[in-house]
Design a protein that fits this description.
Low-confidence stretches: none
Mean pLDDT: 95
Number of strands: 6
Largest sheet: 6 strands, mixed
Structural class: alpha+beta
Oligomer: single chain
Number of domains: 1
CATH architecture: Roll
Strand order of the largest sheet: 2-1-6-5-4-3
Length: 116
């Protein structure tokens, strides 16, 4: 198994355990680019850290389940299920696909595909 595949499995395990920020710190590159659907990419670990921490803090009951994973050349694709309560008190449950491009054992680019 390639190093990036092992790292991807560890990253996903941390996410499922509710350790999103630990996963982010351990496996994302300083120059990471993260993109939601077709929005403009967010560039840099510091900026993306703020965004991730804000999302996690706003959803104290956040649960993420990895449904499937596929691998390519320095590429991982995971289908995940998000479950949480939104600001209006409504239960939110939606699938998302995250495409991660790896280099040197770190996520360099990640793009999220979902409908909401």
């Amino acid at each position: 198994m390639n190093n990036f595949q092992e790292n991807n499995e560890q990253l996903n395990q941390l996410l499922e355990q509710g350790e999103a920020m630990e996963a982010f710190e351990r496996f994302y590159a300083e120059s990471v680019s993260m993109q939601e659907n077709e929005m403009e990419p967010r560039i840099g670990k510091a900026f993306n850290r703020e965004q991730c921490a804000g999302f996690v803090a706003a959803h104290s009951d956040l649960k993420l389940t990895v449904l499937s994973v596929a691998y390519g050349d320095e590429l991982s694709i995971q289908e995940v299920l998000f479950e949480y309560t939104d600001e209006a008190g409504e239960k939110v449950n939606y699938p998302e696909v995250a495409v991660r491009r790896w280099q040197g054992g770190f996520v360099q680019r990640e793009k999220f595909y979902y409908a909401r």
